């Protein structure tokens, strides 16, 4: 049900945009996130530092999580913003963590008001010890649909790489 | 016709019966449903816990803690052994482990787990390790390199804690999972049980509803059957059945109604009853009646049984109907059910029956009146004939003439008997034959009958005898004339059928109870007998034996019919026993009783000739009868004056004081009854003279009517010398003999002597004094009567006559008797005149007593 709705929303909003990967800002500091996707010339890679991520536009999610105590304020870019920027509307994303933990997130999860790639928690950048520097956060409090084991497993922290797949 | 009761209503009413059961089941089902809901929520929760949960991949995370610790240990070992140690990798592994332990320390998922002792201690050990190690990791590369050996050593020492953490968590979660599974299982079990109960409840409900449904269906079928039966009954009813509502609108109309009233059902339904079947002249009354019923609820004719009314047919005929009206309450309101029966045929039959009865009664009356008239009309000339013959017989006749006269008389008497028979039958059949009971000397009666019949018997060379069986009894109470008639008929019959034989009349009296007796009169003959097939019919009218005898015997055939009727009227029975060729026995048994010999001193006294000559008035219009009767009376030594009708009779009675008046009843100008009333009402010389009716009509109620008119007695024509002399003697003796006709006697000589010897002179004198006192008292009280007080003196007079008779005061007694008689007749003049004489006659009597008393001394 949800996935169907998300698919519809995605189609409506994504279709008119045709952004180019070159628009991503080239990294100047430490690369904290590497993105691989199928471009016009085969697999293309985008490397982003914190500024590159922030440059895509930040969103805040206020929510509690099962791993923390109390309501946290997470700031990051929406996954939907990223998929729109890449012009990708389908397939899955293979997300890989620092400790080589990997999960698959369907592109259909990337909706406005959906998951974000959080880079700050409670107005501070997140260290590795604090599950940083990038943590996939869903708005758990917003909907029970986001309080499932599957969503929890997709909430990968210490994220380093996103591989877009068909 | 009655609307089928709504099915819903029926169902509801049925439900009421099993209400309790249904409510119980419904409550059970409700409770069960509630339980199921609660349990389902539990199951959903439990499954939710199993399914999503806020768990993340707990086991994985926990084992990952150990894995990441091992990674850290390996990185520390590699850095220790390497010449160019990868400090960045070490730091990264530390951070990852640090992050993991942070999660385990902070995350709510592990809050329960953290309570576990082993886990808690292991976590604490790991946190201590982190705290000790963090400064070294966060320090410079040089410091880190320096601290590397201690770090490795510390790491290796902490290894078991990481291992314990992982293991304890695993066993904890395994337990948790077990508990959750058990809870879920229990919940599921409860759910299953509850659902089982619900299922049973639902099945029960289903069965109950099914049974209720079946019952309803049966009831419905029964109701339909009942309705169709009712319809069949109504439609096959011979009575018209019409159902209307309160306004008189026809709701139902059966087959018989179609036939009787001629309207078809289709035209009748919905019409107003009044316009349909009620004749125009009654419609207003009908409408008023309906209005009254609607307004006041007055059900005037409802349930009142059958009422006779008139109905109107479709063709305009008005005919009589019988109506029974009933009211009934239905679901659509009150209705009236009218049952109507066409009774025109019955009415016509009734009318015919009444006509038939009327004409039968008319003809019966005509017959009776014809017979009575005939008997009168025949008797009157016959009476004249016989009277003339009697007179002729007393003249000088030669032998041949005497024989002729005798034969004529015999035939005349026979004819008279036949007429009497017919009249007797008529009288009996009219219910007017009542017994006139009185003292009868049976022996004398039988003797007389036998002697009167022996002549006829001798003519048949038959002997006729009579006798008593058992002790002779002379005086009994019965109806003399009827007994006589019965015996004469039976003996006459026996004589007719017996030739050269013997006839015996035997009498017997048997006591049944004290004061009650039965008289048996048997007439046996040695005649030809009666054939068995005739025996049953012989008491029927006009039965005259068989033809061969008929020729020899003759007769009206009424003789035995009269016997039967007379015996019946006396409350007795008559039986017959006969053997053909040997003879016949008739036995009459009549209830009676013994009576004393009535004192009839005068009856035995001498012959009519011995009587004083009387002054008699004979009022009779028929010349022959007048002549005959006058001759008879003259022959008896009386003076006779005659009058040809009532008017002339009244005139003569007024002018002359007669001793006795004979009065014919039916006469021209003025009849006997009116004449009698005139004589009694007037103030003529013969006002108190006894009047005797002469009549051919002998019906008892007429007898009473004559007496009411003022007549004293009645004799039936034809007159004969004996009857005349008897009646004459009776009434002359009843009357106070006029003083001129007899020797005055103040005091009976015989009585005086006898009395004096019995009681002595002193008592005798005292007795006279007492009577003297009574007379004084009587005169003091009743000495001056008026016309109105006259009836009051009757009883005292009678009483005082007793006293004066006892002392033998003949003249005073006679005087008092005449006063009593005059008082009874309302003759004020005679009564007061005689009362005035009492004192004078008594004084003379008393003087005579004194003289005689002196003489006898």
Automatic annotation (TrEMBL), chain A:
Superkingdom in the source lineage: Bacteria
InterPro entries, per the entry: OxRdtase_Mopterin-bd_sf
Protein name (Swiss-Prot/TrEMBL): Oxidoreductase
Source organism of this protein record: Aliiroseovarius halocynthiae
UniProtKB/TrEMBL annotation, chain B:
4-aspartylphosphate modified-residue sites: 664
Entry-linked CDD domains: HisKA (cd00082), PAS (cd00130), REC_hyHK_CKI1_RcsC-like (cd17546)
Catalytic reaction equation(s): ATP + protein L-histidine = ADP + protein N-phospho-L-histidine
Gene Ontology CC terms: plasma membrane
Domain named Histidine kinase: residues: 373-594
Pfam families assigned: HATPase_c (PF02518), HisKA (PF00512), PAS (PF00989), Response_reg (PF00072)
Domain PAS: start-end pairs: 226-297
GO-annotated molecular function: ATP binding; phosphorelay sensor kinase activity
Domain Response regulatory: start-end pairs: 615-732
Location in the cell: Cell membrane
Keywords: ATP-binding, Cell membrane, Membrane, Nucleotide-binding, Phosphoprotein, Transmembrane, Transmembrane helix, Two-component regulatory system
Membrane-spanning parts: 20-44, 190-209
Entry membrane topology: Multi-pass membrane protein
Tree of life domain: Bacteria
Entry's Gene Ontology BP terms: regulation of DNA-templated transcription
Keyword field contains Nucleotide-binding: yes
UniProt-listed PANTHER family: HYBRID SIGNAL TRANSDUCTION HISTIDINE KINASE J
Name of the protein in its database record: histidine kinase
Source species taxonomy: Bacteria, Pseudomonadati, Pseudomonadota, Alphaproteobacteria, Rhodobacterales
